Amino acid sequence: DLYRKVFVFRKDPSDAYVVLRAKLEQPLQNFTVCLRSYTDLTRPYSLFSYATKAQDNEILLFKPKPGEYRLYVGGKFVTFRVPEGRGDWEHVCASWETATGIAEFWFNGKPWPRKGLQRGYTVGAEAAILLGQEQDAFGGGFDVYNSFSGELADVYLWDVGLSPDKMRAAYLSLRLPPAVLAWKSLTYEVKGDMVVKPRLRE
């Protein structure tokens, strides 16, 4: 249970990463991924990397530069432009559904205009899920200049698209539905220089 704790990736650039173990029975027709990050990086970095043997960017939450997030599904991406960071925690949730190909992006509890991506696609279940690095091969192929440096918390993955009130609940750290990956019951393995610390502030 990582309640009120954070993952601190200490180095920049970093070779550290965290492997997350998810219980996925079948491929994903829908998903929502949420997390909170705190960093002063201005170079590109990966926040959440979900790779299958067929596709290294099966699900990828990536920040190419300040004020911009990219959501990849099956190797294709859409871009969401957000206000320039003010040196604070940023909470993001991204959801996607195969039926419409609609990608939803929530930034600090507010929805951004929806975009279309990979309609009819299915996300594979046999996945390597990593925090801190961007996979260019299944479970590896890292470029240190896409590595994350800073603090990560409140990482969740659901196999459904969350409703707007649940998206806001994730931002406010309220009660959430059972998840495939949940911060309060996370199975993870640390590789390299990453430490778990108490959160310094809300």
UniProtKB/TrEMBL annotation:
SMART domains: PTX. It comes from the Eukaryota. GO terms for biological process: acute-phase response; innate immune response. This is Pentraxin family member. Transmembrane segments: none annotated. It comes from Podilymbus podiceps. Belongs to the pentraxin family. Gene3D superfamilies: 2.60.120.200. Residues 3-202 form the Pentraxin (PTX) domain. Disulfide bonds join 34-93. Homopentamer. Pentaxin (or pentraxin) have a discoid arrangement of 5 non-covalently bound subunits. Keywords: Acute phase, Calcium, Disulfide bond, Metal-binding, Secreted, Signal. PANTHER family: C-REACTIVE PROTEIN, C-REACTIVE PROTEIN-RELATED. One of its GO terms (cellular component) is extracellular space. Binds 2 calcium ions per subunit. Its cofactor is Ca(2+). It is found in: Secreted. GO terms for molecular function: complement component C1q complex binding; metal ion binding.
